[in-house]
Amino acid sequence: QTMIWGSIYRMGGDSLRLVANVTDVARDRLLGTVEAITFAGSPETGVQLLADRVTTGVITARSRDTTEMLMRSTRPPTFAAFQAFAEGMDWDNSEGSALPALQRAVALDSTFLSPLVWIGFIYRNRGDYFRADSVGSIAERQRDRLSPFEQAAMDRMLAEVRGDNVRAYLASRRVLSAAPSSDWAKCVTAEAALWINRPRVALRTLEGVETRPGVYNGAEWCDLVPFQAWLMIDNGDRALAAARGFRHKWRDSPWAVEAGNLEAVALAHLGRINEARLLADSAAAAEPESPLLLWAGHELRSAGDRQGARALFARRAASLRGSRDTTR
Questions:
Q1: Sign of CA dihedral 312, 313, 317, 320
Q2: How many CB atoms lie within 10 A of CB 265?
Q3: Which candidate, 42, 38, 35, places its Cα nearest to that of 15?
Q4: Strand partners, 20
Q5: How far apart are the C-alpha atoms of 271 and 280, rounded to whole Å?
Q6: Is 8 helix (H, G, I), strand (E, B) or coil?
Q7: Which residues, at least 6 apart from 70, have a Cβ–Cβ distance to it below 8 Å?
Q8: Residues paired with 34 in a beta bridge
Q9: With pLDDT > 70 as the criterion, what percentage of the chain qualifies?
Q10: 3 state DSSP class of 34
């Protein structure tokens, strides 16, 4: 049972401060406090705004999904903004369709900063670091209105796009401390551990993680972390197993082509050159602009196959020249 109670305070001039407290009666605990400022002469708008925020507060306080943790902000948004935000954070939503929903959440409630953090991560995932930094900087200037989790997530994203790997890892640890059961928090922490050469920390952090598509989930990029960690530890067999697991899991996603390059990298690392070249050539034919071709080429060269490496480098260079020609 939920009880809502509150107070009305007259402020200077013709303003009223409306405060509502939401209490879980059975557990005897305060779920949250929300407020709104309105004119004393026409308080209806402020009352409606307060009601929206109370509704949002009740829903998010009792939610068991990922939205619960994300919405532990310093102040719940309007209900319409929350609905747009929840749509954007839907676990089976693609990043492409998530972005408009998150942008709509900000437009519906300009004081709601949580979506800006996740918009920044979407741009980061696309490699658009300039936009990620720009959006994150807006939230950074008002960080006191973000929850500790959101502050840490924002700091993590900004540190990465600004090239500070140590700070990104430290911010990731704060993310994980604020949300220790979150798979996404474990993923970003493990990823950042690789950047400071801690592959075993990355592998321990990912134990028990279940990735799936969506903005607030590990998704494909998180499943690349074990592969990279095993290579850093020089365990090619485990890296190959991770690459094949990746290929099977994401066989219906755009990452399926990249999985061939991952296997080629692992096979070259193991010295299985003929198999590596066959897979790399197949992947290059399907996706000649893949940056992973360079990785496969470097592994082939390290394994002594300079001819195979040169062929992959040439293919990648040709694809880049072709891209330049089409953009003129």
A1: positive
A2: 28
A3: 38
A4: 6, 34
A5: 14
A6: strand
A7: 85, 89, 114, 118, 149, 150, 216
A8: 20
A9: 82
A10: strand
pLDDT at 236: 93
Phi, psi of 29 (to 5 degrees): -140, 150
| Strand order through the sheet with 15-24 | 2-10, 15-24, 29-39
Helix (H, G, I), strand (E, B) or coil at 5: strand
For 165-218, what is each residue's pLDDT tens digit?
999 999 999 999 988 888 888 999 999 999 999 999 999 999 988 876 655 554
Which pLDDT does position 68 carry in this prediction?
46
Ordered mean pLDDT values, 10 residues apiece, the chain (328 residues): 73 80 71 74 73 58 45 64 78 66 90 88 88 94 86 94 96 90 88 97 92 61 92 95 90 77 91 90 81 86 90 82 55
CA atoms within a 13 Å half-sphere pointing along the CA-CB vector of 41: 2
The answer to whether 176 and 214 have CB atoms below 8 angstroms apart is no
DSSP calls for 134-201:
HHHHHHHTTGGGS-HHHHHHHHHHHHHHTT-HHHHHHHHHHHHHH-TT-HHHHHHHHHHHHHTT-HHH
Rounded CA separation 61/24 (Å):
10
pTM across the whole model: 0.73
**Residue 36: which H helix or E strand, with range?**
strand 29-39
